[in-house]
What we know:
It is a single chain. With 356 residues, this protein is an alpha/beta fold. It has two domains: 3-164, no CATH class; 181-354, NAD(P)-binding Rossmann-like Domain (Rossmann fold, 3-Layer(aba) Sandwich). It contains twelve helices and 15 strands. Strands 3, 4, 5, 6, 7, 8 and 9 form a seven-stranded antiparallel sheet that branches. Helix 7 links the parallel strand 11 (227-231) and strand 12 (248-251). Helix 5 crosses helix 11. The longest helix has 15 residues, at 71-85. Mean pLDDT is 94; it is low at 1-7.
Amino acid sequence: MSASIESRSTPSSPVGLHRVVEPAGACLPQAATRLDASPELWPDEVRIAIETLNLDAASFRQLTEKHGGDGAAVRAEVLDIVATRGKMQNPVTGSGGMLIGTVEEVGPKSTLGLSVGDRVATLVSLSLTPLVITDELAGWDGRSERVPAQGHAILFGRSIAAQLPEDLDPDLALMVMDVCGAPALVARVVREYAERGLAPTVAVLGGAGKSGSLSLAAAADAGAGRRIAVVPFQREADLLAGTGLADEVVIADARSPLGLSEAVTAAGGPADVTVVCVDVPGCEQPAILSTAQGGTIIYFSMATHFAAAALGAEGVAADVRMLVGNGYVPGHAAYALELIRRNAAVRGLFEGRLQE
């Protein structure tokens, strides 16, 4: 046992309560305003030497828009957030992202199944992960969600991490694992319909994005009938053209209640299952109006205002089931990676993003 572990005399919490500095003892790490990100481990923790951060899309968009595309200013704010909070949690969106790195030390009571030297992707949000950056993000221009970085991160007793697959580029695997909860949840919901002998119509808002394209692939894999991809611009429609990921690709503003519902209806809707994958606010009620009575909406966007969704459904007498995509479904990483391996179209979209 290392001296650093022996020095931790206070008991640890498997969900990280012992790392909360402010407000002390009052909340879980995700809701905390500051975490203890020191490298010394409690017995059930794991320390990761970080290589790359992948910022959440909603967070990166907010930072980029705030600073008018000034990459240096975005980089400076990310450094300030991490230094101030001990984690990467955008104070406006509340979201973070995830990371890849190499296991540096494993506490003797860790149950995560990791060993020193393993290259892993963390499957828990940076918004609750103790994090220290030591290189001032010198290798990042502030213009991409992928952030080369040096430093360390801490995983708790109940954190989740997956070893990087040897057959995929690490950056590709990171992009897939960052959104792997979406296709797994979509597949689960679509299979519920399939088990009743139904082939649901599935509409994916943001269908050309990472979580959106994987959700379309998962919907097909799980037995969906008609698949409708909604995108905001022609260039995104062009990305999906000829891929077979969607039966219909429509260009519509996902924030426009009537515009979106009319577009989805014209494409074969209303949808039995609507998946919200866009990283802008204001899509709650349009998604409701685009969904059939008795249907399901999966809000898989950190830009979602969940009170607006609930009250919006009540206000229009919509009998819809609304699910929060919380990012975790058992086996979600393995399933998403298998979709990438099997589906050349969605893999092509992801690999194209790596060239941007």
